[in-house]
Amino acid sequence: MISNQIIQEALIRLKRSGKNRIFLSEQSQSQLKNVCIADRANSTAKISNVIKEQSSDSIDQLNALRLSKDSKSENIITLKEALANFFPNEKLLFGKGSLDPKILFLSEYPNAEELQKNSLCVGKANELMGKIIKAMGVNQEDVYFTSVVKSKTLSTTLLQKGINCPESKGIKVFVEYFKKELSLVNPSIIISLGELAHSFLIEQNLEKNEFNPIRGKVLKFEEYPIISTYNPSYLLLKDSLESKRSFWEDLLLAMDELKLEISDKHKNYFKKH
User: Fold this and answer.
1) 19-to-10, 32, 142, 194, 244 alpha-carbon distances in Å
2) Where are the alpha helices (DSSP H) in 186-240?
3) Which residues pair with 104 in a beta bridge?
4) 68: Cβ–Cβ under 8 A, 6 or more apart, which residues?
5) DSSP state of 206
6) For residues 120 and 96, is the Cβ–Cβ distance under 8 A?
7) 2-65+72-267: CATH homologous superfamily?
8) pLDDT digit string (tens) for 196-222?
9) Is 107 left (phi over 0), alpha (psi -120 to 50) or beta?
10) Minimal CB count within 10 Å: which of 59, 148, 170, 256?
11) Whole-model pTM?
12) 88-107, pLDDT tens digit by residue?
């Protein structure tokens, strides 16, 4: 089932990027015939039960939660426990990294590989992010990774049915959780990875032509500077100099906001010569 989800995720990201056709070898076509997505009905039923299990005032409970422990790590544990209480039978994948970061990287929801390995930012995407962080002149100790949605079931349902599905109302409690998480981690800047992550925060579905104009701009979310750019998974699929350059220009903006040194070498990454 994990391999099926990875294929779905790749195809959906390609579709969001504007791809209408892809070439498949005969071998790939043969393998795809074996892909089964018959579990959609089960996922839909499961997420409906997850939403029902939430108390109607779960958002109010989160907002009223007092985080008064002596350390950030203790307060993060308290916050995680509160969310887990709303989803007692659900797999949740929480953020990871420094609790005193310069940069908070935000994705939309965990993908199949991340859920399988029980960690955000794994595999080739993790290798790419490691290179990006190093190129920016930032240490791993200066970054924190998290996603808006943290539920396995809701992540799978949103992947299969899209952001406008009835189950998407379950996103709201995760947005409220993220606001609490954000205030605790207190980064210098948020880098939002992909149009869906930004859509979840503003509670508005963005098409590709609506997402591109907000890229390359420093906006605000909960008084924190936020820059929206492409998801690394998209870059791995697209694998074009143009998309890499656009992504890097967004990161140069983040570096400028953080007052990091920007050399001529930095400025010329992924430029056509």
Assistant:
1) 11, 18, 35, 16, 17
2) 195-202, 208-211, 232-238
3) 144, 190
4) 75
5) P
6) yes
7) Uracil-DNA glycosylase-like domain (3.40.470.10)
8) 999 899 887 776 667 888 888 999 999
9) beta
10) 256
11) 0.82
12) 889 999 999 999 999 999 99
